Amino acid sequence: MVNAGDMNGSGNLMDFLDEPFPDVGTYEDFHTIDWLREKSRDTDRHRKITSKSKESIWEFIKSLLDAWSGWVVMLLIGLLAGTLAGVIDLAVDWMTDLKEGVCLSAFWYSHEQCCWTSNETTFDDRDKCPQWQKWSELLVSQSEGASAYILNYFLYIMWALCFAFLAVSLVRVFAPYACGSGIPEIKTILSGFIIRGYLGKWTLLIKTVTLVLVVSSGLSLGKEGPLVHVACCCGNFFSSLFSKYSKNEGKRREVLSAAAAAGVSVAFGAPIGGVLFSLEEVSYYFPLKTLWRSFFAALVAAFTLRSINPFGNSRLVLFYVEYHTPWYMAELFPFILLGVFGGLWGTLFIRCNIAWCRRRKTTRLGKYPVLEVIVITAVTAVIAYPNPYTRRSTSELISELFNDCGALESSQLCDYINDPNMTRPVDDIPDRPAGPGVYSAMWQLALALVFKIVITIFTFGMKIPSGLFIPSMAVGAMAGRMVGIGVEQLAYHHHDWIIFRNWCRPGADCVTPGLYAMVGAAACLGGVTRMTVSLVVIMFELTGGLEYIVPLMAAAVTSKWVADAFGKEGIYEAHIHLNGYPFLDVKDEFTHRTLATDVMRPRRGEAPLSVLTQDSMTVEDVETLIKETDYNGFPVVVSKDSERLIGFAQRRELILAIKNARQRQDGVVSNSIVYFTEDPPELPPNSPHPLKLRRILNLSPFTVTDHTPMETVVDIFRKLGLRQCLVTRSGRLLGIITKKDVLRHMAQMANQDPESIMFN
């Protein structure tokens, strides 16, 4: 603190901002970060650490710790994300089975675990053991009959309603941000938007607990999307422990990109697919360093989950499969047809779901989130219970649909008529005629498919954690399995047709219906999310079958082409636009021939631009300007007459600087002159102390001329992550273009309501 005494403004002044003060460089909630500034600040920090490291051993050790902190954060994220995913998987398994019965020997065992420990289980009745009792057996000592069925039906609905009500209540009371899949918001956050609390500790805790509840309730949703949100919450928590990340929003987003990869890694047991998902689908800025760290985080997360072994099959996912039959060129036609189905389903789902979510936002329906969840859960449970394919968990359904029919399978889908003279190895069972079980399974699958398509539209977007990967895959897997059985039976009964003659002789194992289910699942997931490369890699990691990459690629590309023909937006981009997040999608093309002068503010007839002058405004003038406007920053000019641009000052930093100056620097009063130059201005004697704010001034704000094409401006905003850009002509300030102005202009050019894209 310097006491100026009788000295005038030109005396020995202290620029108090030479010492950092709290909150400088931070951003307010629902604002966009300045990527260039964050990058510059990190470069300065790194340069300072490097120069200090040569001074002493201790400083050298500190520089090593700083360099390694990124890898430590990745290790911690991987460990926590893998542990949470394992716990969620185990809890979901137990609570899903709790709706149907309980294990008497240990109530915390799921149905499968209960019968593992039993010595009285036979191979034919592997799902039955005396230790596991349905609710009707426990309460009224009946396992068969109408009364037992009705009691089990009633308790199934009650458990589902109980789980769903508890989940929506926890979200509503403790963490409103824990609802939805979280991927649209994470995409927006990674693009530079600040949503405080979205990745907080409460959100992490409540999302983890409620995710178990909603998946166990039997609603048509998955846990894979929300696991990305959970992993990003872990990333945000650990990055706040290291100043390198907690004080730099740009660096923090590198950690969150890697955390998203770890989330997909544990969701699907696909570490490489997770890295590609983060790169292709969610990340905005993805330098090479982040690629390596994402890879490491995904590896640690997958290793941790494998150590927990939640499914007891030494695999990372429930629906790991191995096929023993190659695919043939003639099968590409049905695979491409499944791709077309996936694209059409994706388009239908996005349009219907967005229409329903818009209705929820704009009508009274949105005021009753708890009632909506209860009604949808009740409808789902009532319709799902009678059909064995909708009663079980969606992951188990997909697992059964993916399965190849071996000699030991007891599923209805494997009820084929066997040749009594067959003496072949177990893995190579020839194609056989379908039995009555297969035909009844086809009817049940067709009804389940229609039900899943309709109910998922209303379920996704409710005020509970809800993922879309698993329901989309289930829709595709059901359609694919039915097509696969159809092709298999066609090949068996008409093996003399020209298309089957070359590759499907009688007694050969030609068609694998499970493969069609897998291709259908990939097609539907691709149609909804518009993923391509990462989707194929995830599916191939799921199955471990390298030779099935071509069918998967054909289906994924076809579904994307078909869906893109009806609209370029995937489900996550559609929800980003619905919520009005300021997200500039890299995939969008801007081809209109407008100029910067058409978009900049002020427009003709509007009030002139609010600016600061370099050395002629008082503290009171600056405070009045801040109070009367809500702009995020102000250009600084030489004078209001010349309007020559000097730099740009952020609103938040002006407020903090003036507040701190009044507290820490004597002589600063309301009529003190504020100056942004190196040397103080000439002031009359006995003037109050001037306030030097050069330190908070950005001396190199990004500028374009008024004749710059908007195509170039949009590209600059996308690639450099700008918050705003100043428009000049011959060094003279004309106006300003913000990210919101760019988004409004793009909406206007696409014949949309410009105000619909603003955050709400």
From TrEMBL:
Membrane-crossing ranges are 68-92, 153-175, 195-215, 227-243, 255-279, 332-356, 368-385, 441-461, 468-487, 515-540
Q: Which GO terms describe its molecular function?
A: antiporter activity; ATP binding; voltage-gated chloride channel activity
Q: Which UniProt keywords apply?
A: Antiport, ATP-binding, CBS domain, Chloride, Endosome, Ion transport, Membrane, Nucleotide-binding, Repeat, Transmembrane, Transmembrane helix, Transport
Task: Give a yes or no for keyword Thylakoid in this entry.
Answer: no
Q: Name one GO cellular component term.
A: synaptic vesicle
Pfam families for the chain:
CBS (PF00571), Voltage_CLC (PF00654)
Asked if the keyword Ribonucleoprotein belongs to this entry, the reply reads no
Give every CBS domain span. Answer: 600-664, 697-755
Localisation per UniProt entry? Endosome membrane; Membrane
Q: What is its main location?
A: membrane
Q: Which InterPro entries match?
A: CBS_dom, CBS_dom_sf, Cl-channel_core, Cl_channel-4, ClC
Known PANTHER family for this protein?
Answer: CHLORIDE CHANNEL PROTEIN (PTHR45711), H(+)_CL(-) EXCHANGE TRANSPORTER 4 (PTHR45711:SF2)
Report the family membership.
Belongs to the chloride channel (TC 2.A.49) family.
Mind telling me what this protein is named?
Chloride channel protein
Q: Give the species this sequence originates from.
A: Nicator chloris
